[in-house]
TrEMBL record:
Domain of life: Bacteria
Upper taxonomic lineage: Bacteria, Bacillati, Bacillota, Bacilli, Bacillales
TPR-type repeats, residues: 18-51
SUPFAM superfamilies documented for this protein: TPR-like
UniProt-recorded name of the protein: Tetratricopeptide repeat protein
Keyword terms of this UniProt record: Repeat, TPR repeat
Pfam families linked: TPR_8 (PF13181)
Presence of the UniProt keyword Ribosomal protein in the record: no
Amino acid sequence: MNKQRKNVNNLLPFIPDGEFYFTKGVEAFQKQKFELSLRWLKKAIESDPKNPLYNCQLSIVYTEIGKYHAANQLLNNVLQTDDYNDCYYLLANNYAHLGLLNDSLKYAELYLDKEPDGDFSEEAYMLLEMVSFEMEEDDEDDWVFEEEDDLLKYQETLFYLIENEEWEKAMPLIEEMLVLFPDHLLVKHDYAQALFYTGNKQKAIALEQKTLEETDQTLHSTINLALFYFEMDEHEACQAKINELLNVYPLHTDQQIRLAVLFAKTGNYQAAYQRFRRINRSMARGHLSYFKWFSISAYKLEKIELAKNTWEEGCMKHRALNNHSAPWQES
């Protein structure tokens, strides 16, 4: 017995470190188990927050699942404290996916300037060739390209702010976009939302009513007005707009999510649940609102397990969702 106790006392406890978590994260990524990879890599970063390799690998997983904004944010954070050259290629790759070809070209060239024989040099040369080929247009087309690139940059930032309901921060960005892109109708709908949620409710309603009169593209205006009327307890006006939307089935994922979220916010949980079920989840990964309101709708319909699983998945994909109250936590 004494010998056994001595052997037990000599055992060293296994304490996992960042390298252990990182290895597990890479293994999960190679098996295309991306959610598991995200968990392991986040634990690796918790152990060693400033390790550039851990952050870059996490950015690669985000890229793989289409969360380019989160990936770029990680890479830029690394470059603020560490001249880790792989970041430049990874940024170039992400910007190419986003269609921001000028930025992709810039970062690919920067990577090759710093690492002409680096681990990603072959990929960088191929990316340069592809991007250069795409940009071989006449001067007029180049001007249009640059304008589209600028619009995408603005939209990426604005989308993040709206999804997190940061309306005060969104307003100056939207006002700038209205000047730069006056013919882009979606910006006007975002402006109406920002007006409403920063206190200019009547102006927001008037803007959307005017848009309805002037254009055939009525979906976003109708969605906004239904939500505005609901928030102002104008139930008959809200229901009239809801009735107009019950038989509308948009093709684009963004519009599908907006409509499903509207139904959920206005208490039409069955309609919301049915719409959420129709949405391709892989296309909705970047939408915090999808996970939040799908979970709420499922919970209200007593589909508790689905609600909790959806909320948990949303929290893994969107850290900001952890700051919201889950539907079962509300009194």
